[in-house]
Amino acid sequence: MLHYLVRRLLAAVAQVAVVLVITFVLVRLTPGDPVTAYLSRVQSEATASPAYIAQIRRELALDQPLPVQFVRYIARVVRGNLGVSYTQSEPVGQVIGDQIPYTIELALASLLIAVLVGLPLGVYAGIHHGDSLDYVATAAATVSYSLPRFWIGMILIVVFAVWLRLFPVVGVGAPGSVLDVLEHLALPAITLGMAEAAYIARMTRSAMLEILREDYVRTARAKGLAERTVLLRHTLRNAMIPISTVIGLTLGRALGGSAVIETLFGRVGIGSLIVLSITERDYALVQGAVLVFAVGVFLVNLAVDLGYAWLNPRIRFT
Amino acid sequence: MVRRCLAVLAVVCVAVTAWPWTGGAQQDARPALRVRLQFARAGGIYDPARWRYTSDWFVYPDLFNWLVRWKPGPSPNQLEPDLAERWEVAPDGLTYTFHLRKGVPWNNGLGELTADDVAFSFRRQMTDPKMTFYAVLNNVTAVDAIDRYTVRFTLKERDASFLWTAVAYRPGFIVPEKAVRQLGDGFVKAPVGSGPFQFVQLTPQGEVVMRANDAYFRGRPQVRQLTFVDIEDENTAAAALQRGDVQVIWTRGNPDIVKLLRGDPKIRTTRVVEYDNLFQVQFSSTFKPVQDARVRQALAYAIDRRVIAAALPGLDAMADVMRPAQLFGGTNDVPTYPYNPAKAKQLLREAGYPNGFALAFLVQRREPDTTVSQILAAQWQAVGLQVKLDVLDATAAFDVRYKEAFNVTIDATARPGDPHLFFWDLFDTASFPPYGSNYLHYTGVDSLIDAGRITLNERQRAAIYRVLQRKVMEDLPIIPLFYRAYVLATGDPVVSMTPGAFSMFWGDTIKVRR
Question: ipTM value of the model?
Fold first, then answer.
């Protein structure tokens, strides 16, 4: 087990290093830099002489060759220093630390909705495959998965916030007020969770169908076990191995999808922060936020892999 | 016994939870309002001398004062006293003396605002090249506190636009010397001013919270608290207003949202046209065909502004001149280029392009730019040009523009009140990129711009600017398209507020339902 963890950790370091390189290069390949973003707002109203522009570039080390910038960046990251955000005028670590709880909150809530809706729907469709409700459930899942999240969000806002006035439209709620936070979380979490619920439902249905055709399920039924026991203990538990992978991926996608949802619902969080930092070419913040996302996805995948052993005791980590 | 204890506990709980609502409400019944920040949030730099982000500019007028300010309203054309009760300009135009109101308090108990604070506010910007408006103030040689309530500015050379461009504009906010010295760089996150509101905090949730300054010299605001909320998406902002999550929003480019808000009986909308904010076609100095004035005129004749107006109903007032007659220094008595595709084709032939030419059209991905660019591309194609649209995000588009690596683009130039900055930015040879927006490297009106700046007599100035506009409308270094407009929408309990121009939010003008 320990050997396995060390191996995974080393692989993760390599993966994160690749993510760092790709992010570092990609943000710099995009036209414009932090100074251009600054000038686009203040040009002809402020101090924009070439000398002043050169000075800002020097301060941000943008005048250095790319390899030098990269080595300095890696040296800082290794020491746990993600740099200073140009747009927020604060250390990147602090900015991310302030905002990541809102993204985690949103991702977990959407995952909960996705699992609570998608899993029973998929199990039902798998067990009753071929009947009319299966077709309805499958069609609903396909439609839900195909619709753009942005559009789903707008429809939910119009129906549940403007018409029915059940939920607020924007913000994250007052800190300390659980009810207020939950009210603000409802629509974004449902928006993000619905598409994932459809995906989980489709995967669960496929896994259930496959397991239900296995010999041991037929044997269990032949032994006279109750159908409930056959379905829960022999079918669903085995189907959960591929489903747990899907759920793990879902959490990763929910983190990624937060950019659109946070922007739509006026929520703070890492997703909207990445959008802002890309617009403003805030290199340090983009790199820091993507790094945190990469580590987050790695941790989720590791947790899913470790969960296999709990779901199937025959699995051993070597 | 248990029941009795529970009853007592219940009474205590009710009393404790109800206390802030009953007692607090009696102390201050004014509402707390939530307002959509007009631009996407970035920065949170609340020291105006270090300004970097447009969204922060929205907040400044509620925290700070100028010596002189433009009269709040959609079309700034008049200056009025702010911290200065009155002012005098020396006959040679080189000295400005301001007499301050007495007894204006700083927020947070920092004492009285004095001439020393005024001198400090300008001097720190004049001496530190890192300050945002260092270059803007390079015509000021000295700012001296003559006594506790009198301050004098000395200029290197005459500048008739000085009050508008320096005193009542971006560099002109007055900050408390004591607080800036005490807090140092921390002032940007904990600003102290003399305005109608005082800064409370920029919350981790991204909201800017301010509470009313009840000692404000113009009177107590009708609003107890203002919270600026960042809502990026315009549809979301409209929904939030309809639901009452926010009470004030703006929309600039989306006709559907305007229609939606106007159809809601609970929402008040006000259309504001900014005649100092000109949306225009700009040309690059690096693109050969547009160096010929006949080609630029041909492109102007090919534009049918009625199509643009139909695509942006209610949002934009069309412009066929640079600066309309209702503004100081404006005139409609200039050559214009009404829609005439035959004339456009004729001019292209005369310029040596009978079959047109290929044109890379740089566009920033935002509204109304994308809609307008599609219309212009279609109209230019109709007179024989081959137009390719390059749609980029704001920073990438500016990067291309800044490097002058485009053929033609569209953008807006907004300069309030005095005409000098507007004409300087667009047409002066000192305003080639990166300093300004003279992308064509136009050289035709430098002497007129200088004359307009140093002439103190207003009638003579206005005459100079009329001549200038006739010249630029003949040479056409830019093509005026429309004056930008926005719709201010408010919901209950807001009864009225004075709409601002150029990202000014006048929080103290908000009137609420009693």
Answer: 0.85
